[in-house]
Amino acid sequence: MPDDNNGRPRPPKSQPNWTTIALIAGLALVLILVAYFATNRNSDQDKLTGNELSQAQTSDPEKRCASQATYDLIKSELFRRAADGGNMNAMFNLARLYETGTGVPKSRDDALKWFHAAADKGQKSAIAKLAELEGK
Q1: Which of 8, 33, 50, 99 has the most CB atoms in a 10 Å sphere around its CB?
Q2: How far apart are CA 69 and CA 48, in angstroms?
Q3: What are the structural domains of the chain?
């Protein structure tokens, strides 16, 4: 056995641990993929996720309005489903959408219908709003 010139045997050369090398390579690949997908966005994805950064960079007002209109439509549909299921807060919110015409056609009759439904369930804001609207 060769020595290190001091009479001591030289330690054997270590062999590469292929499992460790594969693990490091796999982690590096995962990091690269995460970085790629985190930075590779487009405006259509931002519209779906509501990412403000990309929307703020848009100079075309129609694109902003289309995004807001889509959001309002989705919001009205979700409130409608919850209201149909008996949720008094959703009933109140849906009534507000009808009152303002946000995501639904503006309708005082529909707004009153949903305000009454929410008030009947004890929703305090709906009770106050009905007093305000019917007092006029």
Answers
A1: 99
A2: 12
A3: 17-58 (no CATH), 68-136 (1.25.40.10)
Other C-beta atoms within 10 Å of 78: how many?
14
Per-residue pLDDT tens for 100-112? 998 899 999 999 9
> pTM of the prediction?
0.52
* Count of CA atoms in the C-beta half-sphere (13 A) of 57: 7
Question: What are the b/e assignments for 22-54, b being 16+ CB within 10 Å?
Answer: eeeeeeeeeeeeeeeeeeeeeeeebbeeeeeeb
Amino acid at residue number 67: S
- DSSP assignment of 3-27, as one string? B-SSSSBPPPPPPP-HHHHHHHHHH
Q: What are phi and psi of 67, to 5 degrees?
A: -65, -45
* 3-state class (DSSP) for residue 58: coil
Q: What is the pLDDT of residues 15-37, one digit of tens each?
A: 778 888 888 888 888 888 877 76
